[in-house]
Design goal:
This protein is about 20% helix and about 25% strand. It is an alpha/beta fold and about 375 residues long. It folds into two domains: about 5-265, Spore Coat Polysaccharide Biosynthesis Protein SpsA, Chain A (Alpha-Beta Complex), CATH 3.90.550.10; about 285-365, UDP N-Acetylglucosamine Acyltransferase, domain 1 (3 Solenoid), CATH 2.160.10.10. The chain has a seven-stranded mixed sheet with strand order 5-4-1-6-11-8-12. It has a five-stranded parallel sheet with strand order 14-17-20-23-26, with no helix packed on it.
């Protein structure tokens, strides 16, 4: 495919300070053994995009440790492949507001080096097998300047303000777009993903950065829509959108539905790839009880687990009950403890007999390394 990819591995659109205190959103663990960036990278390579730049903005060590050379995605190439970029990659670059436009502007040198005609830009705030090849084909078919991706099939609960004020004509050309409008005009959810011709992107970044007319970012976007052929591409492919604690928990528990897992991990566009770890098999104690749960390899289950997602290396001790919860890597639930609608970050220790309970819209959250 004559397209390169740029992944914006930032927290600009993220509202969950708890989950991203010590990591960027792209490195957020999900589904027992994945990170959110796995889905963006997999969507790129499944569309035969062989040049992928990952722009890192903050707390990027966990992303680089997970992705490394990109070998798992066949991106460790002598020509092209994976490239790590930062907001200050260009000589003399500065950051004032830290907007995505500014971050892209500071990486124009990388965009100029590419030979592909089109650029696919995407964020990392979702889990979904999206067909980027179909997105690019639609862009070419419509002879569009920009084509933005919107989902009609978000399976988990997300706040209303992520619904957008989108108005299109019969040909799906965008007439008006207001991402901050509370009274949404449509039920589609923006995937922060678009395709644009490389040469046009370079010109547009220069124009928006200089902003000679003094427009606000929203006014500049509407001005762009008024003057250019900006189209919407609507997909019915299943998406789990992650932006805060409640959507993270509801999205994780949505994986317990077989049909959701099938659409996510066995999509026609291709598999979801991730870093391989040689962990031992999951060990179950004599009194262990597990129902309707995802248990990753390397976990030790001695108590009872119901309707939950348990990551690699996690441990649920005897007589403990974990239900409707997410237990991340290397965390331990002590004997006789009871967790309901809880999220434990990595390396959390819950002492014996503790009772921790939240609700789907307000989960009980334990930060990385916490001891309760």
């Amino acid at each position: 495919m004559d397209a390169a990819g740029i992944i914006l591995a930032d927290n600009i659109a993220d509202l969950s300070a708890q989950l991203t205190e010590q990591r960027t959103l792209a490195a957020l663990p999900f589904g027992g053994k994945y990170r959110l960036i796995d889905f963006s990278l997999s969507n790129m390579v499944n569309a035969d995009i062989q040049n992928v730049g990952v722009i890192l903005s903050q707390q990027y060590d966990s992303v680089m440790h997970h992705v490394q050379s990109g070998m798992e995605w066949d991106l460790d190439r002598k020509r092209g492949g994976l490239r790590y970029l930062t907001p200050l990659s260009s000589a003399g670059a500065t950051i004032t507001e830290g907007t995505r436009v500014e971050i892209l502007r500071n990486n124009l040198f990388y965009i100029r080096q590419l030979s592909e005609k089109y650029i696919v830009l995407t964020g990392t705030g979702y889990a979904g097998a999206l067909d980027f090849a179909a997105l690019v084909e639609h862009h070419i078919e419509k002879n569009a300047d920009i084509t933005c991706l919107f989902s009609r099939n978000v399976v988990n609960q997300t706040p209303l303000y992520k619904r957008i004020g989108l108005v299109t004509d019969r040909d799906d050309r965008i007439i008006s777009f207001d991402p901050f409008q509370f009274q949404a005009l449509s039920s589609e959810l923006t995937m922060n993903t678009c395709v644009i011709e490389r040469e046009y992107l370079m010109r547009m970044l220069d124009t928006l950065t200089r902003n000679p007319r003094g427009l606000t970012p929203l006014e500049a976007l509407q001005d762009l829509i008024d003057k250019r052929r900006v189209y919407a591409y609507f997909t019915d492919e299943m998406v789990i959108y992650l932006e805060d604690l409640s959507s993270y928990l509801s999205g994780s528990l949505a994986l317990l539905d077989y049909d959701v897992r099938r659409q996510l991990f066995h999509a026609e566009s291709g598999p979801v790839l991730t870093k391989t770890k040689d962990s031992p098999a999951t060990r179950y104690g004599k009194e262990a009880k597990v129902s309707n749960s995802i248990i990753a390899d390397g976990a030790v289950i001695e108590g009872e687990v119901r309707n939950s997602v348990i990551f690699r290396g996690a441990r649920v001790r005897k007589n403990a009950i974990v239900e409707n919860s997410v237990i991340m890597q290397d965390s331990t639930v002590g004997e006789g403890a009871h967790l309901n609608h809880a999220i434990l970050d990595k390396e959390v220790m819950i002492e014996d007999g503790r009772l921790l309970s939240g609700y789907l819209t307000h989960p009980f959250f334990c930060r990385k390394g916490e001891r309760i």
